[in-house]
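To the team - adenosine-5'-triphosphate complex, inputs and output below.
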Amino acid sequence: MSVYESPMVPATETTTPLLQIRDLSVNYGGIQALQEISLVINAGEVVTLIGANGAGKSTTLRTISRLLHPRHGEIIYDNRDITKLRPDEVVRLGIAQSAEGRRMLTRLSVMDNLLLGAYTRTNRAEIQADIEQQFGRFPRLKERSKQLAGTLSGGEQQMLAIARALMSRPRLLLLDEPSLGLAPLIVREIFAIIRELHASGVTILLVEQNAQLALQNADRGYVMEAGRITINGLAADLINDDRVRKAYLGDVPPPVKLPPRAAPEEKNGLFGLR
Ligand SMILES: Nc1ncnc2c1ncn2[C@@H]1O[C@H](COP(=O)(O)OP(=O)(O)OP(=O)(O)O)[C@@H](O)[C@H]1O
Ligand SMILES: [Mg+2]
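Output:
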């Protein structure tokens, strides 16, 4: 059986699937962006989805968030078919996405963006307590609570995107390229927060182009190529997998053996131009 035919890593006795995607296909007009992908995320796991530009990673997240409609397949969350639910309904069930490119409302303040993250909730005292919790987690956001989101640095915007997603109290957090365009120091800070969230029990689906970073911080991973899942396994195994190393971890192939140097007279032959 090929890897593609067996996309589910068997759950151990202690794991329960929180999200299951089965044979999901998504089109943009005539373009088939996802072709029958299947994956499983167990409760409490960090699962990463890696792949090149245009592989279909964001499309997968946007389909789970119900911002895109699949042509075929189903999405099961917490034993419930959510394939046809509205975006606000899946947020209420506990799925939140922190968008790629930090698509936040740049003309709203940090505080208003956080309040917006809680749009499905009504208990003001709890919302306020959660804002304080986010400010504790991201002190820089507290200092800038009245500042317009558009004036924040890239790293601060990424923090706000994550904090805003957390304001809906998700059980499953979908992160799209949290390291994109950020300086190494800020990336380290963001990933420390991701590890903290994992430790506190949030289940995470992490999309990253930085495969090394993603696999170092994930329990399991799926590799996407041109709309399909081609490889999956434990992150620790994928990091040592030759195919993954060559394609995504920047492994330099062994140097090509050159033929012995041509004698001087041959240099003036067909390729002898200098
Ligand atoms: N709104 C859209 N309309 C038409 N085609 C789209 C749209 N969004 C994405 N696509 C196409 O769908 C495919 C998958 O795109 P997607 O954004 O999911 O890739 P990705 O893996 O997230 O890439 P990246 O690493 O660049 O973010 C690509 O071929 C892309 O060109
Ligand atoms: Mg993307």
